[in-house]
Amino acid sequence: MAATPYTYIQCPCSDPSTLGRPADANSPTGTEPDEDDRTFDPRAPRSSYSLYPLEHLLYCEDCHQIRCPRCVAEEIVTYYCPNCLFEVPSSNLKSEGNRCTRSCFQCPICIGPLAVTSVETKPDPTLLAAPDNTAAPHSGPYALTCSYCHWSSTEAGIKFEKPNGIHAQLAKLRNGGTTRLTAKERKERRKDPSYRSTATEGGGPGDENLDLETQFANLKAFYQNQLADPNSGDAGLAALGDLGFSSPTSLSRIMSIYTGGSLQDKKAKSRVGAMREALESDEGLQLANLDESAAIEALQSDGHDCTASTTQLADQPPNLGEHHLHGRSRFTADLRPIPYLLRTKRSKRCPLCRHIISKPEAKVQTTRFRIRLVAGSYIPSIAIRPLSLSGGSGSSASGSALPGALLDPLKPAHYLLTFKNPIFETIKVTLGAPAKTPGRFASKVTVLCPDFEIGANTDVWDEALKDGGGGGGEPGRERRRQRRGEEGGGGSQGNINNNNHNQLEVGKIWERGRNWVSIVVEVVPASLRLDGGGDAPLAEDEDVLEIPMFVRVEWEGEPGGDEVGSVAGKDREAREKRELAYWCVLGLGRIRQ
Amino acid sequence: MSSRRPPRGEYIETDTGNKVARKATLVGTQNIMLGGKTVIQPDVMIRGDLIRTIQASSQAASGAAPNNTAVSIGRYCFLSRGCCLRPPGRLYKGAFTFMPLRMGDHVFVGPASVVQAASIGSHVHIGAKVAVGEFAIIKDYVRILDGTVVPPNMVIPSFSIVAGQPARLIGEVPEGGHDAFELRDLYKTVGNNPQPAP
Hints:
- The complex is a heterodimer of chains A (593) and B (198).
- Chain A has 593 residues and is an alpha+beta fold.
- Among the domains of chain A are: 99-180 and 292-339, no CATH class; 382-488 and 503-529 and 537-566 and 575-590, no CATH class.
- Chain A is built from 13 helices and 22 strands.
- Chain A has helices spanning 33-37, 90-96, 166-171, 183-191, 193-201, 212-228, 237-240, 248-259, 262-270, 293-302, 310-315, 460-470, 475-483, and strands spanning 6-10, 51-52, 58-60, 65-67, 73-80, 87-88, 105-106, 114-118, 142-146, 338-339, 343-349, 356-360, 369-372, 381-387, 413-420, 427-432, 444-447, 451-454, 511-512, 516-524, 544-557, 576-590.
- The longest helix of chain A is centred in the middle third of the chain and has 17 residues, at 212-228.
- Chain A starts with 5 loop residues before the first strand and ends with a strand.
- Chain B is built from two helices and 23 strands.
- In chain B, the strands form four sheets. Chain B has a nine-stranded mixed beta sheet, with no helix packed on it. Chain B has a six-stranded parallel beta sheet with strand order 3-6-9-14-17-20, with no helix packed on it. A six-stranded parallel beta sheet of chain B has the order 4-7-12-15-18-21, with no helix packed on it.
- Chain B has helices at residues 57-62, 184-188; strands at 11-13, 19-21, 25-27, 32-36, 39-40, 45-47, 71-75, 78-79, 84-85, 89-92, 95-98, 101-103, 107-109, 114-115, 119-120, 124-126, 131-132, 137-138, 142-144, 149-150, 155-156, 160-163, 168-172.
- By secondary structure, chain B is mainly beta.
- Chain B is globular and about 55 Å long.
- Chain B has one domain (11-53, 66-188): UDP N-Acetylglucosamine Acyltransferase, domain 1 (3 Solenoid), CATH 2.160.10.
- At the A-B interface, loops of A face strand 10 and strand 21 of B.
- Chain B: It comes from Parachaetomium inaequale.
- Chain B: One of its GO terms (cellular component) is dynactin complex.
């Protein structure tokens, strides 16, 4: 859990009350009072999947609803390598895979970036940039070295002839420097009769050490031959699915099903043994190498330090190791350089109306967004600050209470919640919080002012000009202040009001500014003492005082939904009443145990 | 600055709005470029003396004045107490030379961090006790968490959150988190007459 204090907002997508309901669930139906009364429990196991900081949330302008990373639909705009920042076209992606095929590699030991260095001279990063380093020519061979852990590809026996095109060179190299056959070469070698004869002469069947790709290719060719062969039975076909639909046997089998010929079935059964398994290495048979004495010896000499960790093995790109599955590289010496996984730029769509709510520019280097509807520019932000009332003069908001300090149990504490309005309309906020927090240790919560208005987020310069001209505040705000029974003589907005006026009073705003309002929440933290031995011990983060709070925001917007560029004060004919309601969780701090 | 001498404060405030602590150690100041509105806190060290000793061939050919900038910093950067900016150096055509360290706007460098990057984009947050290795390239909107060790030559693309030793990608900066990189408000909170944070 994050450092306190924090504010998390619940995305309505996972709220069971909104599931299966039409999008305009705002209209009060009144049919399910029990659902309306239900308090959101931030400690429920599901809750942590629906709570997000405000920055992670998006907002759909058409549905007028918050959207979280879980409920948006993502579409990939661009693939690019995070190391060389080159864009990879999606056509290349299909043929080359999801890794960078330039010379970008990560260290298999520490995942740091690898640089191409000359093996002969001392490793230096000279070759990385300087394209015109003809003055000091480096002659091969080259190796990939990590400048963080000083791993070198020579440790795995990999050296390169050229300093460029490393990916292509590495694809042909096995660990230890022996060449590896590419798919094309493998195919050609199969056709070569001289190779076939040598392969069959040497030793028994399955002796040849096939690498994974060759074995798979051999097996695939072998079984495809078997399937296409009309003489082989169809015993194994059912499991192979549609693979065998082209073969004559499966055709006859299907025909027999429809003609209902039981005689045909019997015939088929008699041919069960006709499909055979691979017997030679040429057909893909690979005998398991059960002799692990080499591995045991390596373990005995080097200990566990030389074994690869699971994360290191998981980082290894698939199908690149030449070992067979059962002797798979278990030692760090067998690990190969990892080509960088590509990264993506993604646009996001609203799951309901399919409108795009976030779309970055396609170019890799730009950081601009074409569309970026973030929740922070639609719903008020909530900042939490401890408020200390002790001390003679200490009524200013930045009191002596340190943020992050522990809360004393059963001792009332006060917190200042500052709501900041990001939109260009005046909003009306209604808060609802349970009197006692849910969970085993129920703390008492009192929101002193659960109902207030926040001024519009007008231009700062408008405000400054008005202040300079009139001396007082904005007329509208002045009226509001009087209506609320506050002293109007508090000076210019944004300044802290005179100390003595700020007393904890129910229904009164603590402090207000141009587009923000601070209110006070009083909490009496619960005692975390466990009485009796029967209680379970304190669970992780159970000492954090979390308040679920229901926030309802009302404002009058333009019907067009064009919030941008409209300055408050212009008279609009038809004003549409808008409303947004959501649960949020205020993490105030930890209670002293 | 008015003719009447203001009282000697902790910071030197320049015409372009830079706030440089008197206790900061700036070596080779003529090679350090500040874009303006940059805060340099006490005990910060900037090694402007580590200049390029070999000029790029294109510049030498054109006969232009040698560009000796060792460290260039954009606007609204914030260098916290005890951090160090050091231009990276390497062998180039057989001779050792330093290369300039470039930093964009709104870059926060946390306390006790050492930065030897080749370039840092704009809106970058480098936490406390971070080591950025030589010739690392950090793009825009990157957050480097406390205690990270960025290995030399690493490229960190935009909108990355990295942590660990060595640094690895642990997350992406969400769309709504871009404003958190703005350092205009932080700039106002330091100086000779600081304003409280809003």
